[in-house]
């Protein structure tokens, strides 16, 4: 098995503990502009028995052109998909981990509305830090969150969440581009490319920037 191809090995083991497995992954954590987005997918044993959609990978390993079609197939494979967002202002107010917790909680709340309660399952979170449990406790109650290093690469449920979040956030940043074209968000999606940083130096910050992330920024012109 190639290390870049996700499997359901972990999820299948965990079906011995719970009938529902939730995969979570974030996009936009390191960006200078735009929201942070958390994708959430839920699978059950029947989903696993159907096999993984062909070509499913961590979103970073899939070309931008191929992502939307794969996201559609991944959404059709899982039992439910949801997105949660936290604004740049929330990143400034509560920090990146707090904002990720808000976004993740919102994604899981949307899945609850679809009939899939994270409190009834196990949540697999990409990375090595649980930013979900503390924030979720006030609105969703106690949930079982398990951090999985390289989960977006290795776990199919997390890979499906990764592609959903990446496609949605990229679409948003592309939609914002015409009104803020000097920043080239259609290409850099809000991350700190040379063109983006040059535009900040020349034109200042917009309401979509994380103002706390830029050292000694010029005065905002928008």
Describe this structure in words.
It is globular and about 55 Å long. Helix 3 (67-77) packs across helix 7 (156-176). The longest helix is centred in the middle third of the chain and has 26 residues, at 88-113. The protein has a single domain (9-177), classed as Nucleotidyltransferase, domain 5. Helices cover 41% and strands 14% of the residues. A 5-stranded mixed beta sheet has the order 3-2-1-4-5. By secondary structure, the chain is an alpha/beta fold. Strand 1 and strand 2 (36-43) form a beta hairpin. The model has no long low-confidence stretch (mean pLDDT 92).
Largest sheet: 5 strands, mixed
CATH class: Alpha Beta
DSSP, total strands? 5
Structural class: alpha/beta
Question: What series of H and E elements makes up the topology?
Answer: HEEHHEHEHEHHHH
End-to-end CA span: 50 Å
Rg over CA atoms, rounded to whole Å, is: 18 Å
Helix content: 40-55%
Number of domains: 1
Strand order within the widest sheet? Answer: 3-2-1-4-5
From the 3D structure, determine the CATH topology: Nucleotidyltransferase, domain 5
Number of helices: 9
Mean pLDDT: 92
Q: CATH superfamily, please?
A: Ribonuclease H-like superfamily/Ribonuclease H
**CATH architecture tag:** 2-Layer Sandwich
Strand content: 5-15%
Low-confidence stretches: none
Domain RNase H type-2: 19-222
Organism: Microbacterium amylolyticum
Cofactor: Mn(2+); Mg(2+)
Subcellular location: Cytoplasm
């Amino acid at each position: 098995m190639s290390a870049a191809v996700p499997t359901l090995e972990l999820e299948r083991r965990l079906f011995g503990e719970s009938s529902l497995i939730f995969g979570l992954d974030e996009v936009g954590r390191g960006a200078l502009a735009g929201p942070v987005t958390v994708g959430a997918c839920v699978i059950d044993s029947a989903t696993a028995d159907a096999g993984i959609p062909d070509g499913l990978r961590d979103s970073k390993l899939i070309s931008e052109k191929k992502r939307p079609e794969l996201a559609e197939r991944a959404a059709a494979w899982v039992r439910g998909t949801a997105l949660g967002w936290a604004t740049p202002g929330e990143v400034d107010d509560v920090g990146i981990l707090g904002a990720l917790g808000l976004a993740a909680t919102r994604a899981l709340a949307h899945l609850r509305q679809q009939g899939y309660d994270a409190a009834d399952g196990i949540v697999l979170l990409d990375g090595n830090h649980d930013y979900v449990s503390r924030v979720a406790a006030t609105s969703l109650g106690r949930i079982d969150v398990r951090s999985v290093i390289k989960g977006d690469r290795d776990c199919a449920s997390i890979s499906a969440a990764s592609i959903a979040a990446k496609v949605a956030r990229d679409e948003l940043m592309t939609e914002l581009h015409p009104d803020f074209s000097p920043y080239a968000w259609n290409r850099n999606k809000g991350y700190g490319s040379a063109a983006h940083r040059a535009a900040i130096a020349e034109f200042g910050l917009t309401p979509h920037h994380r103002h706390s992330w830029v050292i000694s920024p010029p005065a905002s012109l928008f």
